Amino acid sequence: MSKLPEKTDTDRRRFVAGAAVVGGTVAIAPGVTLMAAGRPADEAVTDKVRWGLLIDSNKCDQGCNACVTACKAENGIPDFGRPATDAQWIRKVDVTDPQTGNSFSLPVMCQHCEHPPCADVCPTGASFKRADGIVLVDKHICIGCRYCMMACPYKARSFVHEPVANQKPHAPRGMGTVESCTLCVHRVDRGAIPACVEACVGAQRGAMVFGDLNDPNSLISRRLREYPSTQIRADLRLNTGVRYRGI
């Protein structure tokens, strides 16, 4: 499977236009803060950082949908009550072992692969991976062919069937285009964490950890060293940026 060239120039980053520098700390829950290290809007994205997400299914309550609700609110994704066609940037999946009856719940979203199949099959280059590992869709050149949806082994992409209203400036959407989780790139670029992670912390679940996989001292890197984790469909060798514990 061939690998497309990285598309990290400034015109690609219009998707996150308006990102600003933020310093100091960000409060995400009582007694919990995140050190903010924002990046100047005109500074190119580099591969010195690789953003990732670690999800602990042992701490993910089957009845909790805080991450899903937060994602929809943050990115202006409406719920028409039609699961088969409604856009889902993140969804909760209940899994049961047929032999033991053991069941657990976990959120599934774009896995932000190092070698994204969606980018390989996209005829226009609309699907692309930033140098820091975040996989995005450029709505300006997406033609809605849905090849990326067929190529994604995680069913993590949605097609916009309805006319779009009340869009969020940081999350452009358009009928006839494909979309998926952006890891809240607009927040990450200003030194904050994705909305789903913030909501998980706020719900006192602690099932999600976000950070730099390239930094050995980051919390996510330390957790990955301390406890076993896995990738969904690790056999595909896509080297996903989203890892799971307890599955």
The appropriate CATH architecture is: 2-Layer Sandwich
* Average predicted confidence as pLDDT: 84
Question: What is the alpha-carbon Rg in Å?
Answer: 17 Å
> Roughly how many Å apart are the termini?
28 Å
Number of strands: 11
- The CATH class designation is Alpha Beta
Strands side by side in the biggest sheet: 10-3-11
Provide the low-confidence segments as ranges.
Answer: 1-37
Strand content: 15-25%
CATH topology: Alpha-Beta Plaits
Please, how many helices?
A: 6
Overall tally of domains: 1
Helicity, as a percent range: 10-25%
Protein model, in words:
This protein is of the alpha+beta class and 247 residues long. It has one domain: Alpha-Beta Plaits. It contains six helices and eleven strands. The strands form five sheets. A three-stranded mixed sheet has the order 10-3-11. The protein has a two-stranded antiparallel sheet with strand order 1-2. A two-stranded antiparallel ribbon has the order 4-5. Helix 1 crosses helix 5. The longest helix is centred in the N-terminal third of the chain and has 10 residues. The two termini are 28 Å apart.
Salient structural properties:
19% strand, Alpha-Beta Plaits, disordered N terminus, alpha+beta, 247 residues
Topology record:
Blueprint: E1 25-29, E2 32-35, E3 51-56, H1 66-75, E4 90-96, E5 103-109, H2 117-121, E6 127-129, E7 135-137, H3 147-151, E8 158-159, E9 178-179, H4 185-188, H5 195-202, E10 208-212, H6 219-226, E11 242-245
Parallel strand pairs: 3-11
Antiparallel strand pairs: 1-2, 3-10, 4-5, 6-7, 8-9
Helix pairs in contact: 1-5
